[in-house]
Amino acid sequence: MKSLLLKLKIIQQFRSELNYSVEEFVGMMKNKVDYSTFGFMSDATDVMSGSDNDFKGLISEKQFRLKHKRKMFSGNMSIPLVEGTIEQKGNKLQIQTEINAFKGPLKFLFFMVIITFMINVVLISIWLKEDTAIAKNMIFPTVMGMIIFPLFVYLVMRLSVSGVKRKIEKHLFKLETN
Length: 178
Fold this sequence. Notes:
Elements: H1 2-7, E1 11-18, H2 22-32, E2 33-35, E3 55-59, E4 63-68, E5 81-89, E6 92-100, H3 104-129, H4 133-177
């Protein structure tokens, strides 16, 4: 399943190298990330937060877990979860990062897409057996719904992952150039 999500770019992985020690990197990241745990209502207060930081999460010297903070009119960027490992190799810091949009509410939405798809297949098979004009007129809108709804869900997940990846790469680039 994970290999399929990687091919669909709903999960993206990348590696970065920085010229910092682990302690320096963790210190800088803690200044740029608001401390937060990820619970049921953890996104509820993001909009009202007074902090200018873009991310919230947990950072240790071995790993991190981040999420883009929800902001007013920010769309879907708060969907993906960013997890990574931090490892010192010589004078280089290696950061392996994974951005995953297939979690929480989107797993439920994906399940609903599958249920809707199966219901539509049953309805279409019933309508094909009937020889009425109403049944024949319902086939096209149903098929279009079967195409558009899953495509919309996929695009939301993919765009959110690529947006968060751009933000993280931008922050890492800023750290490297400072």
